[in-house]
Every structure is written in C-alpha cells, then in structure tokens.
Amino acid sequence: MYVHGGSFCTESAFCRTYNNYARSLAARAGALVVSVEYRLAPEHPVPAAYDDAWAALQWVASLSDPWISNYADPGRMFLAGDSAGGNVVYNTAVRAASGGGTGNHIDVEGLVIVHPYFWGVERLSSSELVWDGVAMLTPELIDRVWPFVTAGRLGNDDPFVNPIDEKIASLTCRRVLVAVAEKDSLRDRGRRLAARLRDCCALADDENAVTVVESEGEDHGFHLYNPLRATSKALMETIVQFINQRTALPLPAALLPELHELHACG
C-alpha cells in the first residue's frame, strides 16, 4: 500500500508523478500496489490523512476486492510512502499494531519510508540549521507546514510528527527501510527514527531488520522528478530488493497470476 507525499496538502494518487511511480514500483517489484487517495489540507486538516490511510489499510486487509483476494499475498503486506506519505505510513503501522482501537490486529511485513516528513521543535544538526539557497525544503518552511495542515491545533512537538519512543516500541512489523537524501533538511529526522527503531522495538532483536540508505548529493523527492537519474534507479533497486528479500530475483508482474494459481493448487 503506497501513500503519496506532498506536505499533506498537494499531489494525488492520480497525478502523473505518483501514478507513474506506483506503476513503476509494481512492475519492478512484481507487486500489487494499492495507491491511496487521501483527503488534503487545509480543507481537510490532519488527522484526515491518517484516517483515510487507516481505512484503506482495513479495506486491503479485508480482501474484499476480487483482484486483491486473488492475487495479493496478505502475509506479505508492505506500507510505503514518501515525504508526508512516509509519515502517514509510519503512523498507520503504529495504528495497525494496536488494531486501531478495534482489536483487529493487521499484520504488516515491512515499512518503506522515503524522505519521511518528521520534525520537531529543536534542531538536530547543521542540516536543519544551514540553508545554502538550493534546498527544496528550508527549515523555516518546514516549521510552518505542520501547524498549517493541522489548522493550528498541533505543534511541531506533536507525536504524529515527532515520534515518541512509546509509539515506536509498539511497532510489530518485521522490517523497515528508511531512505534519506544528503541535501534534504529532513535527513537527520529519518536517521534519528531509524536509530530509535533499532533501540526501541522488536526490531532491535534483529540487527538486519532496519535498513538505512542515503542518496549522496540529492535533495528531497529527487527520485520522483528525475526517475531516470542513476541515483533514482539505485534507490528504486534498493526498495525492490528490500521488498523481495525472500526471492532470488524480482518477480515480473506478468507471472503473478500463474504463480498464485500454482500456490492455490499446492
């Protein structure tokens, strides 16, 4: 299940950028991809995006759609997203671990969090202090985004955007990939989350459960707007390998129906 980025207030699952990316991910990984269209701020302030992602995950897990029930493997559910979408899928995984208040736990194999939007009141390092005039997202801009998309109800210290150890420790997924970009002002927030994942939750028992990949010389979201760049291809290959760790090679999408038929016969 893929959740698009856009600072909680722009972009769409149907826009060319994200539709192309979801199609490319499905083809490269040999996976069935559900791309989520969630309500955007400011017309629909956060937590509307979280509620929509949770509803989408419940729908996927219900296997009520014939295509999903016939071709998806519910034992290998991945939640993926970039930027704001990375934030949304992290919080969705936290919600899934507890059953979202319904008591119905949803099993998640792994998280793929690309250039995730996490922030806080304090600055972590020079990446959040110094802007050389070319960064896509400046710290000053990021400071204003969260209060705007929450209609002023939540500050930058809120657990939705500044994860706390209690929530991190509750995660029950088995693997996490965190991708950051060297020139991204959000870089060290992603690094920090990965470090805390290694320390705070069940993933700490497996030294290979948390993977961090950094794209040198790149800024926030570069892979979406320059998909043919070498660094974009490398990031896609890393994500594909992460998803397909159980298989020797990524499976062509065209083979999935036949493979599922064989599995059903077996």
TrEMBL record:
<dbReference type="InterPro" id="IPR050466">
    <property type="entry name" value="Carboxylest/Gibb_receptor"/>
</dbReference>
<dbReference type="GO" id="GO:0016787">
    <property type="term" value="F:hydrolase activity"/>
</dbReference>
<feature type="domain" description="Alpha/beta hydrolase fold-3">
    <location>
        <begin position="1"/>
        <end position="223"/>
    </location>
</feature>
<dbReference type="Pfam" id="PF07859">
    <property type="entry name" value="Abhydrolase_3"/>
</dbReference>
<dbReference type="InterPro" id="IPR029058">
    <property type="entry name" value="AB_hydrolase_fold"/>
</dbReference>
<dbReference type="InterPro" id="IPR013094">
    <property type="entry name" value="AB_hydrolase_3"/>
</dbReference>
<protein>
    <recommendedName>
        <fullName>Alpha/beta hydrolase fold-3 domain-containing protein</fullName>
    </recommendedName>
</protein>
